Structures are given as C-alpha cells and as structure tokens.
Amino acid sequence: MAATTLTGDKATCARSLALMATGTVEEMAEVYRADATNREAKDEPEATRGTGPEATHATALWLREAYSDLHWEVHDAVQEGELVVLHTTMSGRQTGPFTVYDEDAAVKVVFPPRGRSFAVTQTHWFRMREGLIAEHWANRDDQGQGEQLGWTPPSPVYLVQMLLARRRARATEAAAPHR
C-alpha cells in the first residue's frame, strides 16, 4: 500500500513515519500536536522524553544517528474513531552506534555499528486529535532486528566492542553540561 493512496488521518500517520527518516522539526509540527506524547521514549535519550514535535524530532535524530537508509513501508492502515493503526516494515542499515537508555536517561547499552541491513515488522498506533497526532506507541520485532544486525547472540568480540562503546558513551555523557 503506497502512503500516497492513504487519506486523512491515515495519511498523516504514514507521513509521520516518513518524516522520521528525513523530516525537520517544522515538518514534524505539521503532523504532531504541541502536547503529543511518544510512549516509546522510555528507552531513548532525554530530549525525546518531552512532548510535541521537538521530542519527536529528537527521536528521529536518535534513530538517524544509528541507521542510514531508514524507511517504513506501510502495508495496512486501519482507523477506528481517533485511533489509527499502521502495519509496517521498517528497514535500514546500521552505520552508527545504537544507544539504549535507562529510566533515568543514562546510557544503558550501546550496540556498535556492523554495517548490516535489516527489515522488521512493526505496528504503530496513533491517537489523533483535530487532525494531528496526540499519542504514539508501537509493537516492534526487536529480537528479529537484533538477530539481523548481529547483536543477538553476541560473539565474545562483539560483547567487548559493546562494553567499550558503552564506556565511551558514558564518558561523553559525563563530560557534557548537566541537564
């Protein structure tokens, strides 16, 4: 299903995924409410944990840091009242470190890049208000993505690379001005 065949709220939601790969804050403001919440931000950097287009754009930048050639193919779109659901495949190539954060937004795990490509099924859920996205959450195949990228199961060498990458990320975090 091409996103161009979608209309209304479904098209807005599909556009929001396309903007994750290339969009600006200004473009995010065209699809997200100022008080929009991303329930998935709990494992993301601190800047993503706020609300609105700025936080959503921070999520996009976080993903772009790790993955090039990001793309979401929309297979199905369903709407029931204010709820829109998109069944998608996310694809890309890991060209940078992927960092996971803990509940305090501190670096938890870093997966160094291996240059591998991936394609995984995801379902994105959006709550709409007045034609804009008010809330987002997702179901993702993180296990499949980890296997395709060589994170799971990790080799002993990759485990050491992960530990060194986490040490570098924490040192960078400690040297940054405090929040």
UniProtKB/TrEMBL annotation:
Recorded superkingdom: Bacteria
Positions of region (Disordered): 35-55
Biased composition (Basic and acidic residues): 35-47
Pfam families per the UniProt record, alphabetical: SnoaL
The name this protein goes by in its record: Ester cyclase
Organism: Actinomycetospora aurantiaca
